[in-house]
């Protein structure tokens, strides 16, 4: 008798094509298991109540900030202690930066890093010889009108975290404080200058829109901060290929980029926990990630795929070119209320970049959001607690 597993992911070759290709290959591994994937737009997937998704689907591709609230509410099945602990140890060693750790909470593992990403840089090698290496060079190229930068709220927030971390202070590590005034001012000075030099419509753009614009015309040649999409670095995906590279260096080098990516989780409500967990571990394994998952359009979360000569040759060294950034990426606070904080704070950052808030008011609002949503648990270790869950979530990939 065939067991059918239903999965939900997001609408993009990276999110959907990858898992569909893997599901087809899985029939040769487990002939009695069929995995059927559905998808929603990235924002629709983020906004849909998570408990409704876990009621309907066995497998979910999720953003790691959802892990704490899902754990608190018992929505995902823990993956440790299920007969796969040796594989968990191996996947931890094969993690790209903190990707694997980002799916753990309260001493349990609630997801596997099937996709790894952070804010990186992208450029057109046919238009400029090399990407800028620091922020002075970025601004100089922006003054020539050659730069795009997505700064819709969640991306503006991510960029503020990235730039501030590069300057030497990681945001949200002190109770009630988003950033010290000096660091916030220095980071916002960089971002305000950049916002003034890129097209105004970038205030509503996401990384996919910027990648599309970079790859389809010849006017713009570079973006300093956007979540990487290896699809754009491959032959035939768009008119022109993008070369991805590490973020502009600052005081901490290429460290501090906000960690994104996606993971595979198993619903606690599944009627087929053994089969669903087995498939999740298979999907996250090195051979699958480097092979059929990548070939289906995926952006692997396994370091073996990032080190592969084959995947790098096919993608203009996407993985080698951004690996330092991923290894030094910033992990957001693991807290049940974090997404509420991010949603609120993100709007304030874009408003400030549009000239609607000065730095003092921005800092006051950001500090207030940290105090209200995170309390004293900034460096949260995963202590379970009861917490309401927001259904209006922004996500980053």
TrEMBL record:
<feature type="region of interest" description="Disordered">
    <location>
        <begin position="377"/>
        <end position="397"/>
    </location>
</feature>
<dbReference type="Pfam" id="PF13416">
    <property type="entry name" value="SBP_bac_8"/>
</dbReference>
<dbReference type="InterPro" id="IPR006059">
    <property type="entry name" value="SBP"/>
</dbReference>
<protein>
    <submittedName>
        <fullName>Multiple sugar transport system substrate-binding protein</fullName>
    </submittedName>
</protein>
<feature type="compositionally biased region" description="Polar residues">
    <location>
        <begin position="388"/>
        <end position="397"/>
    </location>
</feature>
<keyword id="KW-0762">Sugar transport</keyword>
<keyword id="KW-0813">Transport</keyword>
């Amino acid at each position: 008798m065939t067991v059918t597993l239903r999965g939900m992911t997001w609408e993009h070759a990276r999110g959907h094509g990858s898992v569909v290709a893997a599901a087809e290959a899985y029939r040769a591994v487990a002939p009695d298991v069929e995995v059927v994937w559905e998808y929603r737009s990235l924002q629709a997937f983020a906004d849909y109540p998570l408990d409704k998704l876990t009621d309907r689907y066995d497998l979910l591709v999720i953003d790691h900030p959802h892990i704490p609230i899902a754990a608190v509410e018992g929505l995902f099945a823990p993956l440790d202690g299920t007969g796969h602990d040796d594989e968990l140890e191996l996947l931890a060693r094969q993690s790209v930066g903190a990707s694997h750790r980002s799916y753990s909470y309260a001493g349990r593992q609630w997801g596997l890093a099937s996709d790894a990403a952070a804010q990186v840089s992208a450029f057109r090698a046919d238009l400029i010889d090399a990407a800028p290496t620091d922020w002075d060079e970025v601004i100089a190229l922006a003054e020539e009108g050659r730069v795009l930068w997505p700064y819709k709220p969640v991306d503006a927030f991510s960029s503020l975290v990235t730039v501030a971390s590069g300057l030497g202070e990681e945001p949200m590590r002190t109770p009630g404080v988003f950033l010290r005034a000096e660091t916030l001012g220095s980071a916002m000075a960089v971002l305000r200058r950049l916002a003034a030099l890129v097209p105004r419509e970038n205030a509503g753009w996401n990384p996919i829109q910027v990648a599309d614009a970079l790859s389809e015309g010849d006017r713009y040649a570079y973006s300093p901060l956007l979540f990487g999409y290896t699809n754009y670095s491959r032959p035939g995906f768009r008119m022109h290929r993008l070369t991805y590279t590490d973020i502009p260096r600052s005081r901490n080098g290429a460290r501090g980029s906000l960690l994104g990516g996606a993971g595979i989780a198993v619903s606690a409500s599944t009627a087929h926990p053994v089969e669903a967990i087995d498939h999740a571990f298979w999907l996250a394994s090195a051979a699958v990630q480097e092979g059929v998952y990548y070939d289906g359009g995926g952006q692997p979360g396994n370091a073996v795929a990032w080190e592969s000569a084959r995947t790098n040759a096919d993608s203009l060294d996407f993985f080698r070119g951004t690996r330092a950034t991923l290894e030094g990426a910033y992990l957001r606070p693991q807290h049940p209320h974090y997404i509420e904080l991010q949603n609120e704070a993100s709007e304030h950052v874009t408003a400030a970049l549009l000239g609607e808030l000065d730095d003092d008011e921005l800092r006051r609002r950001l500090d207030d959001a940290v105090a209200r949503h995170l309390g004293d648990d900034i460096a949260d270790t995963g202590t379970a607690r009861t917490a309401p869950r927001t259904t209006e979530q922004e996500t980053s990939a």
